[in-house]
Structure formats: C-alpha cells, structure tokens
Amino acid sequence: MNIIEIAKLAGVSKSTVSRYLNDGYVSEEASEKIKEVIEQTGFVPRRQAQAMRSQKTNLIGIIVPKISTETAARVIEGITNELSNAGYEVLIGNTSQSIEKEFDYLKVFKNQVDGIIFMATEITPKHYELFEQLHIPIVVVAQKVKDYPCIVHDDYHASKDAINYLIDKGHRSIGFIGVGEYDVAVGIERKKGYLDALEEQKIEAQSEYIQIGDFSHESGFNLTKHLMSLPKPPSAIFAVTDNLAIGCMEYLKENGYKIPDDVAVMGLGDIKIAAYMTPGLTTVHYHFQTMGAKSANLLMQLIQSGKESSKNYESNFIFNYRLIERDSV
Amino acid sequence: MNIIEIAKLAGVSKSTVSRYLNDGYVSEEASEKIKEVIEQTGFVPRRQAQAMRSQKTNLIGIIVPKISTETAARVIEGITNELSNAGYEVLIGNTSQSIEKEFDYLKVFKNQVDGIIFMATEITPKHYELFEQLHIPIVVVAQKVKDYPCIVHDDYHASKDAINYLIDKGHRSIGFIGVGEYDVAVGIERKKGYLDALEEQKIEAQSEYIQIGDFSHESGFNLTKHLMSLPKPPSAIFAVTDNLAIGCMEYLKENGYKIPDDVAVMGLGDIKIAAYMTPGLTTVHYHFQTMGAKSANLLMQLIQSGKESSKNYESNFIFNYRLIERDSV
DNA sequence: TTGTACGCGTTATCAT
DNA sequence: ATGATAACGCGTACAA
C-alpha cells in the first residue's frame, strides 16, 4: 500500500495525495475522497521513503549502558516523553556496559538518525574520534565531555555536601566506598568532593578509609567488611552510589551493627529502594528523568539550528540535587 | 557521503562497491581500494536506503506501557540483547500508560518496522482491529491474546500457589488486594487463582476481604487500611503485585502491626525492592528478562518464516514462576 | 489546483 | 569480474 495506490483509488495523482498529507493546497472534493480512501486502507506514509527524500529521519538514537538500570530507565523515560511529543521516534542502543558496543552504536547511528543522546560512563579518546566523525549533533548525559554539549549532575558538590552533612552530625572518621577513576563523574568527582570536604574541615583523610571497588552491590558489601575490620573502624560510611550503600547496609545489618547508632551510612542517587530500606537510606536525590527531558530538548534545539555537529558547543548543563534526610545517619 | 562517492574515490562503479559490501564477487585489487576508501571516509551504508530497496527495515518496534517501570525495563533488556545479537535495531514506543498512544504506535510502526513486540495491559476490540491491519508479525507480552502469539506468565497458578502457601502456613482469613478486571492477567487471572485456591481448601471467600484498587503504591496502603479496620481483620494479605504489597507493608508497619506475626503479607512479581524490605517480602518470582528474550526470538522466527501476519499462530508460551520464601509470611 | 518528471541511496538484473 | 540501469516510496520543482 503506497501513495500511488491511494492516488488511484481516489482518482487523483500521487502529487495531490502527497500535498494532502503535507498540508498543501488540495481542492475540497479531492480532499474528501483522499481522506476516505486513507481511512479505509489505513495508509501511513513509509518513513524510510520520506527520510530518503527529505534527508531527515525524524529518528533520535539513544545509547545507554544498561537499560534495566533504574537510573538509565528514568533518563530514557524523560527523553522519550519529550521526543514523542515533538514527533520524533527513538532508536535505542543498549550496550550492556560494553564499550565496544558503544562504539558500534556510535557508528551505526551515524547516518541513520538526526541526533544522538549518549549516556556515558567512561569517555576514551576513541569516543572523541567517533564524535568527530559524526555529522549530526550529539548530547552526552552523565559525564562531562570536552567540546561537546553535556548534561550532568553536580557530582563534586553533591558528594561534598553529603560529607559535610555527616561531619555536621558529628562524624570525624568517615569511610569512603568508591569506584574506579575511569568513570570521571562517579570515580573522580565524588571522591574529590569527599577529600575536599574533609580538608576544609581540617580532618585528615586516612588512606585506609578509602576503598575502591566496582558498581556492584557485592562491592559495597565486601568493602564495608574491610572497613569494619580495621583497627579503628569508621563511625560513618559514605558510598558513592545508593547501590553500594545498600550493599554496605546489608553487611552491617547481617553483622549486628546498629544503623545509624554504631555506623551511619549515606548514599548518593536516591534510587527507589533507598526509601524502603530499614532504616531509610539518607542520600542525595538526583533528577534523572528531568535530565533526560533536558537532554532531549537540547538535542532538538541543536537539530533545528541546522548545525552539522554539536562540537564546540559553548555551555553545559549542571543539574542540581537535593539532600534527602532519612534514618541511616 | 554515499556509495557513489566511494565508487568514484575507488575508481570503480557503485555496483562494485555494493557487491563489496554484500559479499559479492570483487577482484582483489578493487577490493583493496574500496576497503581503503571506506576506512578513510568511515562510510556506512544508509539504512533507510537499504530498507527502501530490500523491503526489510531490520527494525523491530517495542511498545511498552512505561519504560521506567522495573518490569518493563527487564523485558526490554531481554529483548534488546537478543535482537542486537541478530543485527536488528530497536524502535521504542513508550506509551506512558495511555491507550491512545498504544494505538498511535501500532499505526506508526505499521510499515516502519519488520515486527512488533507489544507489552500489553488491557486489550480492547480496537487493539484487535489494529492487529488486523498489520502486515507484519506481532508478539504480545504479558497478556493473553486470541489468535495472535503471546508470551505470558502463568498468573492463575502463580496466584493460586501463593494462596495455598498462605493456607499451608495456617492462614484461613486471607485478604486480597487486586486491580480492575480490564487487565485480564492481573485483574482476572490472579483473582481467580485466589478464589479457586480458597474453594479447593473449603474456605469460604468473604467479599469484604476482596479489595480492588489501581496499580499504585497508595492503593496498597489504603486498601490495607480498610482491611485492617474490618471487624474481623484478615491474618494474611495477598497483593497481586509486589508494589501493592509494599504499600500494604507500609501501612502495617506504620500502624504497629508486626509482620508476619500479626499479619502475613505476600506479593507477586519479585521486584528488586522486595528483597530489601524489612522483613523481606515473600513473593513469586517472574522471569521478565527471559520473557523478553523469548519474545524477541519468537518474533524473529516469525519474520524469517516470511509470513505477512502472525494471526492464527497456534501455540502460546506460558512461563513458569518460582515461589520465593522470605520473611513476611 | 493538478499532474509530470526527477532525485534521494541502495540493491538486483542484465549485458558486457 | 564489472558497469549501466531499473526499481523501491515519497516529496517537490515545474509546467499546465
């Protein structure tokens, strides 16, 4: 079922049908006949053909590390809502945390979509190389990127505020559970926030209090075990993600420590589970869905501006956060 | 950058380049030149053009009620992993629980993708009408559908087993928190499981124990409040989703009831939070990700079989479940 | 207002 | 082995 068949059935030429579809000038009688035929047949113009002709795909590609992650899902929720309102459709690239797949999608989406939203963890030179080869705008979410537009949370201050909160509550020995520095936002920024907060309060950072693992749950568990086996265990533990904090709480609870009386625990991100833990996890709320919406709007704006690339985009967006006091501190 | 330019740069015709790209016979020297040019330029064939010519889009459309829902995210995770291994890309339609948007996506995807996976809640006659108009296979997930392939969990028996488990634990007065019957799987099947389990154990169902709300968290909270204000409150409560069960637990905990001593609580679905509640929520595990993977495989199989529609597909898939004993019963 | 003819990038057919 | 050409479905400049 194509536009020619519709034209035949309506007794007009395909140009007339095309005009009808695209708000062009069509006489009333032709208009009605076409309308009727289209309703009967349920005809919808093929988007691939439209894209071919117009050089606009009306498609946006999203690349995410793992779609079943709560944070990714929330970002995507924000993105898709905005985009579908604007008539865009969304192609999704789930990389399962594989950097190779990130590269693949960056290549595959290249001339298949009008723009890309890239939810990043680690940014390597190869990434920049691929960004260069893009002839469409790209917006990076969750990691700072040089020369390209990006949307991030203020990881440094969020972390710093969290530590200051712990210090305010009287803690002087604060354990830190972090992740590798390949992830700048989570691995470096949040650690720096921790270190700077201590320094400003004249508390000497102790290297044995600083534990680095991966993003897994078990990592939170095991590193807490290690912290608590120290000669002088910390009175509070800050984990750079809620997921880690939950692993941390598990260890403490299983081993009879009272939270927050024996050990206070603080996370970052405010995933849904945080509210349901016992005690409720004190953490920092991040606005992932709003962030997704913002990235979508920014991307659409870049597309409409007609630029071939979003390189050298001047301003970035740093999202605010909100400290959530619950009962684990 | 298109195939013609590559051809020019390599000093051959575009047909030769096309053959090079598609495993055709090309002389070694031509081959090498083309390879070189493609590497330099980073050329990738435009998928829209390929689709145009081949009548295959290599795209699959997924329609989900709400992407940021844990169950949906897990289903999508399963789907995308399977599909991307097979070289398909995924177009996502997030309907935000709007039935109108479901219709929209069913129309829009119609001649834009090679097949559709539809995660459904409510199936109306209008849905069937749109299914009819499809000229591509569709697989329905999470709801039974007449004449079309679908992949579901065994809601009836899952629910029944849950109730039997409660009965085994000595409960005779079991409250039920359900949802509207527009959702057949959750609203009807799970309720039937409850009723039949009681009947088989010669326990008379009491209408005041059966409370119906929506899917929200608050619903679980409020309906529990109502159940507990009954002259003779139940000794156990079964909620048809974990989300409702969690709302239920919240009410009980806030009001000083001990779980499971005063009231036992059981859910269904085994969302992540369930494991972290205190006490851990006893529930029934559903295999959402595997379900997604299965639906993807089935759809690919249908596509490869070359049928224009998946209507009258004979066999459906009913997934098993697993009872998870934790501490709320 | 309507219709004709062409082009978008690719693949398939057919000669050469 | 290679190249010219048609075809896919649609939009649009141009002619009528």
From TrEMBL, chains A, B:
Residues 1-54 form the HTH lacI-type domain. Keywords: DNA-binding, Transcription, Transcription regulation. CDD domains: HTH_LacI, PBP1_TreR-like. One of its GO terms (molecular function) is DNA binding. InterPro entries: HTH_LacI, LacI/GalR-like_sensor, Lambda_DNA-bd_dom_sf, Peripla_BP_I. Signal peptide: none annotated. This is LacI family DNA-binding transcriptional regulator.
